[in-house]
Structures are given as structure tokens and as C-alpha cells.
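User: Fold this, then the next.

Assistant: Folding the first:
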Amino acid sequence: EISKAVSKVGKGWPAPVRALFEGILPFRKTPANVLVRAEEYSPIGVVNTAVNAYQAAKGINGKTAADVINSFSKTATGTSLFALGAMLAKAGLARGKEDDEEQEAFDKLQGKQDFSVVLPDGSSYTIDWLSPAAVPFFMGVAFSDALSDGDITVGEFLKALDALTEPMVEMSMLQGVNDALDQIRY
């Protein structure tokens, strides 16, 4: 349903606006599907599991215990990937995106890649082609990076929650929208 709604955005608008929108986000259904799957396979998917459990208990929308188990399995898989990403980031074997633009440029000159797995020899490999499974993994990396200084204050926790959305945007086709918003903001 989300894919259908997103694909209708821009229909019936004047041609220049439609052309601009097509340039920013040429494929609308694919990013919507990736985002929905990434949400299902993440710790956030616990909401889906709870809704499915409620609907199955009340007999709403034809939900069954099998739907609840399926939803729980996806959430458990995503949560495990989230935890693995956080652990590997803490061990220095996974990296997210650098906050400092100068440091990020320097790292790129050295061949370091954003959202990548880092081998012990220092070489890095992106696994964004594993999307949507890579999204919860790198959400864990981003969460670990945001809390890396050890002091967990309310501000740090909120910053970490904000960092969770970055891998989803960076690793999907929504990067074009993000780039356009950055340009407008600039």
C-alpha cells in the first residue's frame, strides 16, 4: 500500500514540477519497498509484531498466529543484525558515516568507505547491495557510533536515535531526495 501511495505522488502536477520530481526520485516504488522491508527487519518491527498479535487475538484482518510468528521472526533477525552491527562497530570492524566533513573527505582519500565492513588489514568493503538486510546492520553501527563516547545522556540518546535513520536514507534510492534537500538548505 505504501508503494502504491508513493508511486501516485506527482501524478497530475504541471509538467515542469513532474520533471523535477522525476529527476530527484525517478524510481518511487523501489525505495518505498526497501524502506518497508528495512523497517520490518529492524528493532522497530516490534510494533508490527505487536499489531499483528493484537489483530490475531481479536480476529481482525484475517491475521493468524502464523502472521505473528512471521513478524516476530523478521524483527528478531533485524534486531540480531542491529546488535551485530553495534558490536562490530565497537570492535572497529564496521564503519558508518563520518560526522565531520573534513575527516570524511580525508578518509575517502585514504580509500575508506562509508557504511562498510572493515577487515583487520584496514581494507573496507561495502555491503549495501544486501539491502534491506544491511539497513538494520548499519543502524546498529550508527547507534554504536553515536554512543561511542561512553556518556549516555538524554541528548546523546536522542542523537543516536536520529542517527538510526541515516543508513536507511543513505543506502536507499532516497539519497537523491536527501541530496536535493541538502542543496535547498545550502
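Now the next one, as you asked:
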Amino acid sequence: LERNIAEMKLVSSETRFRSAIDAIDEGVWDWNLQTGEVVFSDKWPRIFGYELEEIEPNIQTWKNMLHPDDEPRVMQTVSKHLDGTVESYESTHRMKHKNGKWLWILDRGNVVERDEEGNPIRMIGADLDITRRREWEEELNESRERFRSFAEAAADRFWETDEDFRFTYLSDSS
């Protein structure tokens, strides 16, 4: 009876976990640092245009998709987390989609298991495609820059205030 109850609790817990993973818009990964094996959620490869069966379940898959210009910075960030210098891993970088385009990814994770000497054994995390957010930020920055250029060139003075009526922008006027 106790075994049946424990099995039912385990199934219930696993169901809740799977439902949570399915509910978020992120691809989850579980990396065995000793073997290099990575267990990817079904959503992880789909972010990049693949099905789970099309990718190799190892860290090299991730490294092959990582933008070469971002790799040194990202690997340094990973290393800092693995050696305990920083509490958690977080990086924004580019990764290659199956169609050849570069996606902006917010990648976060934590070491969840260490050996007796404190060496990392296992790390779990998630990737979120933030490409559209980055594009919106760029568009907003370009719009702000156009406004500032217009305001600086205008004969009249322009200003902007925050909700407490403090000046956040004041144009130069001739």
C-alpha cells in the first residue's frame, strides 16, 4: 500500500512537472557535465526549427548553434557559474536557426548537483527566444534617436518629463 501511494505521488509530481514545462514558452535543457549528454525538452529544438529526433542529445549540439562571436563571452559566463564565481548562469546571445537566421536567446541555468569535492555534475536551465523583443528594442531606440535628432534641429525647445514632472529630456535650442 505504501509503495502504491509513493508511486501515485511520483506520477502526480511528474505530471505537474511536465505540465509546467509545457506551459512555459521556453526550451528546457538538462546537462550532464561528466558525459556531455544533454536532455532537451520537446520545445527546445523547436525554437531553432528542429524536431527532437533531428538533434544530437549533447552539448556539442548547443555549441554548434552558438554564434562564433558570442562564444568566448558565453563560455566565460558558463565557466564563472560552474566554478562558483557567480550564483547562476544567464546569457543573452545568438544561436542559429535551422533556416540559417540568427535568433537572440535568453539562456539561464543553475548547477543542481555537485560531487563531494564541489565539482559540478549536472546543470539545468532554459532558453527563451527573445529575437522579437530585441527587434522591438532596436526599433524603439531608432525612433528615440530620430526624435532627438528632430528636437535638436528644431528652433523650438522640446522637453519630456516623467510621471513626477521631472525633466527626463530637454533639447538644446538655438
